[in-house]
Write a structure and sequence with these properties.
This protein is of the alpha/beta class. 23% of the residues lie in helices and 24% in strands. The strands form two sheets. Strands 1, 2, 3, 4, 5, 6, 7 and 13 form an eight-stranded mixed sheet that branches. Strands 8-9-10-11-12 form a five-stranded mixed sheet, covered by helices on one side.
């Protein structure tokens, strides 16, 4: 059994619905703020961190993003030293999920084979992809891959007892979600397979699409993997702070999912 936390490290108020939903949206200009999270699954024997956020420097450079605090510091406030993180799962390689990988030098990095292949392959420079990724972060991952620290499942894999990754794709080629056994049942960290609850609950895919049928299939897969709908954790939704209780003393920074 694991305790599962969402750690909120940044937010962006100046975004609108039209940025976030695939296809025509009748309220495209309506404000639709976004939060940025990493997630930690903690037991006496294991700590698995899901995603690595972006850094304060990246927030400054990209603008329009309010950086609250390094997720590494909030993790420490939860009583978890970075050195205890045994696995760092990267759900995918967009810039807002790769920024703090260097802060976990002891962790095994877990990303899908098809995700690393895409971002080191012939299409990475096309369209908006250079903007969506951090070449510096990716260079670090490529270097670490030569040390054997980067493990690359091709599909589903159990990392430690009670925690598994599941390839879904859709938003990026190798997007994976993470299932965590908790006292309340199996929780699923959806990450960008459902940025907002409205994506999965309203069957409305997000606006950044690699493969639309896979996005719909991801919704179905997440619903199958989760013990109950309440244990599905959206990747970027401010509602996460409303749906789960704040960790005392860390209001606005961390909630306990289960
Ligand atoms: Zn993404």
């Amino acid at each position: 059994m694991y305790e599962l936390y969402a750690i909120r490290y940044a937010h962006r108020d100046a975004s609108v619905r039209g940025e976030h939903f695939y296809g025509h949206d009748p309220c495209a200009e309506a404000p639709y703020p976004i939060d940025y999270y990493v997630w930690a699954a903690v037991s006496p024997a294991h700590v698995v961190l899901v995603d690595a956020g972006f850094t304060a420097e990246t927030a400054e450079r990209r603008g329009n993003r309010h950086y609250l605090r390094s997720p590494v510091d909030t993790l420490a406030a939860l009583g978890v030293d970075a050195a205890r993180v045994g696995h760092l799962v990267l759900t995918h390689l967009h810039y807002d999920h790769t920024g703090h990988v260097r802060d976990f030098p002891a962790a095994t990095i877990v990303l899908q084979r098809s995700e690393l292949a895409f971002w080191t392959g012939p299409h990475a420079h096309r369209g908006a992809h250079p903007h969506l990724a951090s070449p510096d972060d990716l260079s670090y991952l490529v270097r670490e891959n030569f040390t054997g620290r980067v493990t690359q499942p091709d599909g589903d894999r159990e990392l430690v007892p009670g925690i598994s990754v599941h390839h879904v794709g859709g938003h990026t080629p190798g997007l994976q979600v993470v299932r965590v056994r908790t006292a309340a049942g199996d929780a699923v960290v959806a990450s960008d397979a459902s940025h907002f609850y409205e994506n999965i609950e309203g069957d409305r895919p997000y606006g950044i699409v690699n493969h639309l049928p896979a996005m719909y299939d991801a919704f179905d897969r997440i619903n199958t993997l989760a013990g109950s709908p309440e244990l599905i954790v959206a990747g970027h939704d401010p509602l996460v702070l409303d749906r789960y209780p704040a960790v005392p003393g860390l209001e606005g920074y961390a909630v306990r999912i289960a």
